[in-house]
Structures are given as C-alpha cells and as structure tokens.
Sequence to fold (175 residues):
Amino acid sequence: MTTIVVNGVKREVQAPNDTPLLYVLRNDLELSGPQFGCGMAQCGACSVLLNGKEVRSCITTLGSVGGKEVTTLEGLPSRWAKQKGLSEAEAAHAIHPLQAAWIEEQTPLCGFCQNGMMIKATELLEHTASPTVAEIKEAFTTSGPSAHLCRCGSYTAIIQAVQRAGHAMAKGGQA
Ligand code: FES
Ligand code: FES
Fold:
C-alpha cells in the first residue's frame, strides 16, 4: 500500500512501486485527464504537476512520487482556489483561468494533447506572469524532456490561450 497526495487529497494505492504514475492515476484513481500517448516521455499527453513542476507521468514511477503533491488536470480548479484563498462556497464553483481561456479561445481540436498543454501552461504561468510568445514557445518545446506535440496543429490557439490566461491571472482571475 502506498499513500500519495493527488489534487490535495491523500489516496491509498495498492499498485506496485514500479507502476507508472499514469496507470495509477487513470486505472486506480479514475482520473482521466492525463492521457496515454507515447509512453516514452515524447509527447506530453500524460503530463501532471509534481510539486508544481511538470513531469511525464508515463515514465514516473509510483514509488518515486513519495510525499510530493500530484496535481492533475482535474485539480486545477482547487489549485487556483487555494492560491487565491477562496472560501469553500466560492471554490465549489471556481474554474482555473486557464480553463476559462481555453474555452474562450476554443483551443482544443480533437483534444487529446490538451491535458499536457494545460499542465505545461500552469507551470509556466505560476512562474512567469505574462510570458512573451518566445517564452511560451520555449516552455512548450525545449523546457521538458521533449516538445509537447499536437497532431491537430492547435499551437497558435494554445499560445493565444496562454496569453489570455496570463492576463486574467494577473488581474486575479478576471477575464
Ligand atoms: S504518454 Fe507520456 S509523454 Fe507521451
Ligand atoms: S488537439 Fe488534437 S492532438 Fe492536439
């Protein structure tokens, strides 16, 4: 039995320590945000935050997570609510400004890559409030083990959504 903290909640997991975190999240904890794309850290579809840093959950073992906090796509609203100090009632209806921006920019096409795109964007915007286009491109291409891939070519919309979310976050979440 292993205990991990996912989206602010302690979860008990029966899987062996060498199980990929992605399998634990999807199969044991029924969190379907992270996607299985390549299984080799080459596409970014499986990304999650580990103590605020993007990792590829397909190559991250359960045993390596330890006491670190895992945040999945499903945890973005509560992450934002905690950062903003929202009340329980406010938090119940909160969505992360990134999610709002993604909706407003109609960013996804098939949607398969978008989990990783939003996780990477969260990491970026928590460190760089108003990134330039060059900084956004750098974050999505060379900052991780590989570039985040979108086979549908939604890259322009992603950049626009990241900038929209950055402006909203700088204003406390207002679009
Ligand atoms: S499934 Fe993990 S990087 Fe592609
Ligand atoms: S929206 Fe289809 S892979 Fe990116």
In short: The pocket of FE2/S2 (inorganic) cluster (ligand 1) is lined by residues 36-39, 41-46, 56, 58 (CB under 6 Å).
